[in-house]
């Protein structure tokens, strides 16, 4: 992305992103991103099992493509009125170009379609980049799970409430006009 187009980019601008349901055949490309994105990556089996649960409607997993290349993925699980974001990552060379914004907006609209009232997630205390993304979406920190990661690093628990209300829908539409609502 050129400096000029980046300067002109609005938050969440599409820039050729295509969103599709995550499929088993996506897992090798997902693993390439997963392994460089997390200190403790999920295994292929975890993704396969989450895809299976998506088929039963208990999860919702998406991939983002640009020019047919898989550049990001994200997923959520649904628990009595809340949607829990389980994973979200963008390919390193595609970061800060709106991939995660588009994926998170798609998950939020899906949560609204499923009559959820809130979104929630855990994020590493050191992961200030992801926290900035979540704040843009209206997530606020509500607590800390001490030594949640590898028995060493704290997790910040974040919640975003009233997602089905008109002000939040308007915020989502502004953050990412391209997301399917
Ligand atoms: C966190 C992550 C998913 C963000 O993905 P992304 O596609 O780069 O995010 P976007 O381009 O949609 O960013 C949207 C906004 O979020 C904020 N943001 C995202 N990454 C940020 C960073 N590293 N530092 C500061 N702000 C950041 C910015 O406000 C950004 O808007 P801007 O680029 O116009 O300033 C990506 O860095 C990643 O895959 N990290 C590794 C996996 C991970 O940590 N996942 C989260 C687990 S809780």
Automatic annotation (TrEMBL):
Keywords in alphabetical order: Acyltransferase, Transferase
Record CDD domains: NAT_SF
Gene3D superfamilies given in the database record: 3.40.630.30
Domain N-acetyltransferase residue range list: 17-163
Listed GO MF terms: N-acetyltransferase activity
Name this protein carries in UniProt: Unannotated protein
